Amino acid sequence: MNLKDKIVAYRIYLILGALFISSLVASNLIFQKFFYWDFFGVYTFEISVGILPYPITFLITDIISEVYGKRKANQIVTAGIFASFFSLLIVYASKEVPATTWSPINDETFTKVFGATAVAVFASMMAYLFAQYIDIQIFHFWKRVTKGKHLWLRNNFSTFSSQFIDTFTVLLLLCSTGVIDWDRFGVLLLNGFLFKVLVAALDTPILYLGVYILRKRFKLKQGGELALEI
Fold first, then answer.
1. What is the C-alpha to C-alpha distance for residues 99 and 135, in angstroms, rounded to an integer?
2. CA-CA-CA-CA torsion for 51, 52, 54, 60, nearest 10 degrees?
3. Where are the coiled-coil regions (predicted)?
């Protein structure tokens, strides 16, 4: 790869990383709102809005794993951890300073919306550590087994396993700390996991498209990876 291609490849990697981190941080900040979704009359989901951007993170790590390799995928995961904890510090500092009398959002409202963010970020990070690293490990295990073929197989097998671990761990910690009642654990586990499985299946064409574009742009063979020395 020439210097120009390396610069372009690294810029794309940074853009993917930015999308990954913003999706992760956003999911931690908005998780307290829950909504329902009637899936064509087959099943009604009851899930947190925080789950909406979260599957994007797994899609991005799968693209990075496939094109840039395991090391670069792990680097993005680590960067996401630091970004989430840094956002937690900002929210905590914002909660501690007193609101003015004319502030559109008073202390009580701010605390109600963001007060559980610390618990959410901790729960999310514990689940995130388990799920993302496991996702990357499983993805590359199947990549070796299939010799770089059957992208849909490693994408879905890795995501299904890691998403269950993620959903279970988050709910376990949130219920243990009293943020969510235990009687909601079972239904939220089922809804969260089914929703993530559905999204993982639906995003497979997007994964194929992204990988195809990058492989064509950088003339990669099937199963080949870009080598970025940083």
1. 42
2. 160
3. none
> What are the distances in angstroms from CA 82 to CA 25, 29, 75, 217, 228?
10, 15, 11, 31, 22
R_g (Cα) of the chain, nearest Å? 19
Token look-up 């870009």 returns: 226
Q: How far is CA 58 from CA 38, 61, 88, 101, 143, in A?
A: 24, 5, 22, 43, 16
What single DSSP character describes residue 220? P
Element (H, E) at 43: strand 43-48
Q: How many CB atoms lie within 10 A of CB 155?
A: 26
Say what the pTM is.
Answer: 0.80
* Tens of pLDDT, residues 31-74: 778 888 888 788 888 888 888 887 788 889 889 988 998 889 88
Tally the C-alpha atoms within 13 A of residue 37's C-alpha that lie toward its C-beta: 13
107 to each of 48, 95, 99, 102, 215, how far by Cα in Å? 24, 7, 6, 11, 51
180-217 pLDDT, tens per residue? 789 888 888 888 888 877 887 788 888 889 989 999 99
